[in-house]
Write a structure and sequence with these properties.
The chain is mainly α and 112 residues long. It has helices spanning 2-20, 22-25, 36-44, 66-78, 81-87, 93-111. It is flat.
Length: 112
């Protein structure tokens, strides 16, 4: 009986991720096309200032001033873990969570 239970749990563990991704693979229903009058009404409401909010527009950010640079340097000198996190050499708390979940799954597979 334990063999069939372990087989069922393993089968569910293998099938569940693919079943969860199924809605992403299936084609979604498309919205009906707009009538010409509706399209004209939408075009009449066009605001040229919205052009800066469209995708692909690069917003040039202001560069750091000397005060901000001094503050960042002081913060990095006080806390060395900031440099480790920026360099990617130290896992974040979210990565530790995923590592723990992975270890639990491996432990569960070994026990079964």
């Amino acid at each position: 009986m334990m063999t069939t239970l372990a087989t069922r749990v393993l089968g569910l563990a293998l099938v569940t991720p693919s079943a969860a991704l199924l809605p992403a693979v299936l084609p979604s229903q498309r919205a009906p096309a707009l009538e010409p009058a509706e399209r004209a009404a939408l075009h009449a409401r066009f605001d040229p200032t919205l052009g800066s909010l469209r995708a692909g527009i690069v917003d040039v950010r202001a560069s750091f001033g000397p005060y901000e640079r001094a503050e960042l340097t002081a913060a990095q000198a006080r806390d060395t873990s900031l440099a480790a996190l920026r360099a990617g050499s130290e896992p974040t708390s979210e990565q530790w969570t995923w590592i723990a979940i992975g270890a639990a799954i491996v432990l569960l597979i070994i026990l079964l």
